[in-house]
Amino acid sequence: MHFTICDYVFEIVQNAVESGASSVRIICDENSHNCVFVVEDNGCGMTEEQLATCRNPFITNSKKHPRRKMGFGIPFIIQCLETTGGQWHIDSKVGRGTRVEMRFSMRNIDTPPLGNLEDLWVSILCFGCEDDKKINFLIERTLEINEGEGKKGYQLDKNELSDMLGELNDIAAQVALKKYIHKLETDLCKPKTLVNICLKK
Amino acid sequence: MKNLEELRKIRDEVRKNMDLRSGKKRAKIVVCMGTCGIAAGARETMKAFMDALEKAGIGDVSLTTAGCAGFCEKEPLVEVEISGTAPVRYGHVDVVAAQRIVKEHILKGKIVQDLVFS
User: Fold this and answer.
1) Rounded distance between C-alpha atoms, residue B19 and residue B59, angstroms
2) How far is B96 from A65, CA to CA, in rounded Å?
3) Quick check: A44 contacting B, CB < 8 Å?
4) What SS3 state is found at A199?
5) Which of A171, A36, A155, A199 has the alpha carbon at shortest distance from B11?
6) Which residues pair with B66 in a beta bridge?
7) What pLDDT, in 10s, does the model give residues B99-112?
8) Where are the alpha helices (DSSP H) in chain A?
9) Contact between B7 and A176 using a beta-carbon 8 Å cutoff
10) pTM for this entry
11) From B12, which residue of chain A is nearest by alpha-carbon distance?
């Protein structure tokens, strides 16, 4: 099990990268009740049989480690969501891609803390930079501080950011990116949910 | 496009404060971030590298992530390759170890022997 929600989400993004996707879209929609993460990719997708076995930790189709028989990413997240009043949904079609939706209940005391979203975005945006095949990441972050007041948010498009900063595996680009995301996130005026306050103390 | 204008300003400021040698990078750091790596604290390690390099003002280093390298018991696992030399793998790299690697290996070119895995 991981410590923060961000750790779980990073795992799912990693699956998307390993599926051979050229484009990965990550949505983070937060309000005082829920925090919904969606990871969509246009990678190889899964057959119905593979999808049915995805919650089994002793089955994997990872090609990187042919002798390894375990895959904990999705089983961990399902276990976490099911024990904390959350919901999940996975859609996948072979050759079309996969969509993973994770709805965390922020009112449940057992839900892990959200973690540092700024670091998560930086980690995702510099993922796979070394590969020949470039993956475009699109991050859409929205937040509704008080119910009925409407959502605020920002978008991060890797192509757009690379145009401005150059290669994102460059440390100077990452430092600039981190400062930029910190500013965006601070401007959003993140509310302190009860769960996060309790855990920080 | 007010946001991108802000990003341009931040970029120029960072470039002013960091040593950016044109052309080849002096080193490449790869942090393994599989399930095992994340559980062992690899995201903290990654942040520690970024902070230490920023503090040292070194801009010509590439920092990137990879999946599981297959040595889960040694996580967080980090590969450091100084340009022109063979890559070195360090095991159990926590925040303090990351700071040591930047200080010794990246800045002085001296391998941190007690942390070496392979």
Assistant:
1) 5
2) 30
3) no
4) helix
5) A171
6) B32
7) 999 998 988 888 88
8) 5-18, 48-52, 73-83, 117-125, 158-165, 171-187, 194-200
9) yes
10) 0.84
11) A176
Q: Does A117 touch chain B (CB under 8 A)?
A: no
Write out chain A's pLDDT in tens, 201 residues: 778 999 899 889 988 888 888 999 999 999 888 999 999 999 888 888 888 877 777 666 666 666 666 667 788 889 889 999 999 999 999 999 999 999 999 999 999 999 889 989 988 888 765 555 688 999 999 998 877 778 889 999 998 898 888 888 888 888 899 999 998 988 886 555 555 555 655
Q: Can you give the pLDDT at residue B92?
A: 93
Considering CB atoms only, which of A2, A6, A179 is closest to B10?
A179
For chain A, domains (ranges, CATH) are: 1-115 (3.30.565.10), 116-134+144-201 (no CATH)
Residues 6+ apart with CB under 8 A from B48: B94, B95, B98, B99
Residues near A141 by beta carbon (within 8 Å), at least 6 away in sequence: A27, A28, A117, A121, A153, A154, A155, A156, A184, A185, A188
Joined tokens for residue A145: 């501080």
The first and second tokens of residue B16, run together, are: 């002013």
- Which of residues 26 through 55 in chain B touch A, CB cutoff 8 A? 30, 33-35, 38-39, 43, 46-47, 50, 53-54
Amino acid B43: pLDDT: 87
ipTM of the complex: 0.81
The answer to whether the Cβ–Cβ distance between B62 and A172 falls below 8 Å is no
